Amino acid sequence: MRATRGAVRAYILAVTLCATLCVLPALRPGADTPWATLGLLAGLYLGCELPGRCPFFGRSAPVSAGSFFPLLLAAAFLLPPAAAALVAVPGSLVGRVENPPAAARRVWRAAELALTVWAASRVHALLGGPAALGGPGPGRLPDLPYALLPACAAALAFSLVLAALDGSILATAEQLPVRRAWSGLLPHSLGPHLVHGLAGLMMAVLWSSSYGPLAALFVLLPMYISCWVFAQYHREHAAHRATIRALVQAVDIKDTYTRGHSERVGRASVLIAHELGMAQDRVEVLRFAGILHDVGKLGVPTRVLRKDGPLTPQERRVIELHPEYGHEIVRGIGFLGEARAAILHHHERLDGSGYPYGLTGREIPEFARVVAVADAFDAMTSTRSYRPGRPVPVAVEELKRCAGTQFDPQMVRALARGLERHGWSGAASAVTADDERVPDDERVPAPRTGGAGRDADAGPDRGRPR
């Protein structure tokens, strides 16, 4: 662990030295540094970061440290590389830091952004970007659309360098393979950074025009507000994911036998949803439904869930209440929407023999019919400590055999199509039990006949409701 911390410190020091070398030309005596423009841009960036330290804003500050990139890109377009690199330093050194050590994180962020802005400004200058911006004189109009080329190239360089540095510090700190640490960073950031580059170009064009810096603020303010709205959305989305994750972890702790099952049911539900052509917002809610379908087990006594012997009729009735318990647990979570009905009704069957209410056919909500198929599919294909998982084709045939009585045929066909297109990796090798005990759902004679076999959730002849 000490070696890891030492490596991180050494890496931060190396990046800081590189950043220092990049900004030195602007600090040398006789350098033609436009200090007025640099000071104003640095002050604006500092002003964008200060709300993050203000108790009034708390965690709802408009932007977090280093996130208001349009202003940094405008600096890359307006200033020489060495001067542009200095713009990010004051704001990064005082910006909000979520986790300790705060000092090291601020130094890292300042050095990282200085290098990133320097690279973007260098690319912009090499492609003739400053000349394309025009100037305050009546004969120096911006050269559009040519100015878009160096601006987009600079935004690309900004994104590449930032992704490389973020991935490298992650690989150093977490001892991850570099490829894994960099995975996804550039694809997720490139689009937003190009948009930030266009906003920065608008600011730079207005700044260089006869209207001056004051006109550029009319671009700055709307972009700052839009960044705040975007950040609020991501914070809310992160809170949603944290809520889901906490509930799933609680279920896994209580019923270790089905560990990993919930996540796979969520994946299978999404596979079905895509084949049905659902809108993306509904797909996300359906994924939540699949992940949380068994959250009601939190209301079932642990001694019943983990009981080694056969279940009594009373204990069976208690377990059959878990959909209702789950609905009660999540009913106040507004963002779940239709997922709440899926949690309540995912054990209903088309022929009316399910629970808790014995709904039939289209009375069963669409999301519940999807989750029922995904739930049964994962139960049959997952390897358990006492038996291997069924091959995917065998499980699909079993679902088709029960379609029309237990499962919605449309959902079964959608799952089959999705599996043909995308396959199903990892299910047959995923062990969902931590011990060698035989689950209760295969010990008790079934109260019903017919169905998709003896696997948990797979058919009505299972001994224990899941």
From TrEMBL:
Location of the region described as Disordered in the Swiss-Prot/TrEMBL record: 426-466
Domain HD: start-end pairs: 258-380
Ranges of residues in domain HD-GYP: 236-431
Pfam families the UniProt entry points to: HD_5
TM annotation in the entry: 68-95, 107-127, 147-173, 185-207, 213-231
InterPro entries: Cyclic_di-GMP/3'3'-cGAMP_PDE, HD/PDEase_dom, HD_domain, HD_GYP_dom
Keywords annotated in UniProt: Membrane, Transferase, Transmembrane, Transmembrane helix
Superkingdom, natural source: Bacteria
Gene Ontology molecular functions: transferase activity
Biased composition (Basic and acidic residues): 434-445, 454-466
Name this polypeptide is given: HD-GYP domain-containing protein
